[in-house]
Amino acid sequence: MAERALKLSEVCVLLGSLVTAVLFGFIAYKGPELIPDYVDHPTDEAQFLDRAYNEFDMDINTKFIFFFSHLVKKEKSGTNIAEYLTSLVDKHNEQARKILGDAWSYDPQERYEMAKRRIENAKTDEEKMEEKLRALQAVLSERTFHLHNFIIKYANDPDSISASELDEAQAKFEKKLKDVDMNVEEKIWSATTPGLALECLSPHPKAEDLMNIYYKVIHLKLKKCMGTTVMTYLTEEQQHDRQMLLGVFAGIVSFIVALLVIGSVVGSKDESYLKKSQ
């Protein structure tokens, strides 16, 4: 009878340890998904414009440049590059709308109109300059997003876009800045051209030449004209593998700890039970 009770206690220790290992392993693996997001929406237009640019526009461009360079270095096909970057942009836009809320549009074209209206309503020169900078940021972001879309389309099908489309878009951006009495030097256009090295953009090339550079980088894997990345990110596959390893490690550690803790508790009870049965 005593031996049977001991065997049963051993099974309980093992099962308890396994359950603990599975539980903590699952929490470690799914941890980021289980933590609820804290959403802090902007409370006014100025805060919205600043956060849209500083938190989201800068973030997506940095990620876009990194993964664009990463995929080119891995010598992925144009189609694969387009698919990955499309998914990246879509997820970013969804996250931006979630965090910024529905009170205002994340679309940089509408943000420009908002900043332009705020310039007209500004009461001091300082306020006007502040709003002009916001208008400039919106235009630069609109151009950057336009080039993101261009890269995706051009990677998927080099014949889908003409140089005239880029010229027309650039003329529109320059006109918007002129409308708010803002001008930028050509080196600013080069510095905000995603995915390309500044050495290959000086002086800032015409649309046809710009397309040729992108073609060589995307389809001929010309790495010397590839832009430098300021941040490093994990791919979705790497993130999954990291969480999987973390889950396995947490499971093993929690199993060993649970085995020792539960075993010591049950073991002490078994000793007292054996003494009584003797």
Which characteristics define this entry?
2 domains; single chain; 0% strand; mainly alpha; 278 residues
Which secondary structure elements does this structure contain, and how are they paired or packed?
Layout: H1 2-34, H2 45-73, H3 78-100, H4 108-121, H5 125-156, H6 163-179, H7 186-191, H8 207-219, H9 236-277
Helix pairs in contact: 1-9, 2-3, 2-5, 3-5, 4-5, 5-6
Question: What is this entry, summarized?
Answer:
The chain has nine helices and no strands.
Walk me through what this model shows:
The protein has 278 residues and is mainly alpha-helical. It has 2 domains: 2-33 and 239-277; 39-232, no CATH class. It is built from 9 helices and no strands. The chain is flat. The mean pLDDT is 84.
Structural category: mainly alpha
Low-confidence stretches: none
Helix fraction by DSSP (H/I, runs of at least 4): over 70%
Radius of gyration, Cα only, in angstroms?
29 Å
Count of DSSP helices? Answer: 9
Tell me the count of domains: 2
User: Strand-and-helix sequence, N→C?
Assistant: HHHHHHHHH
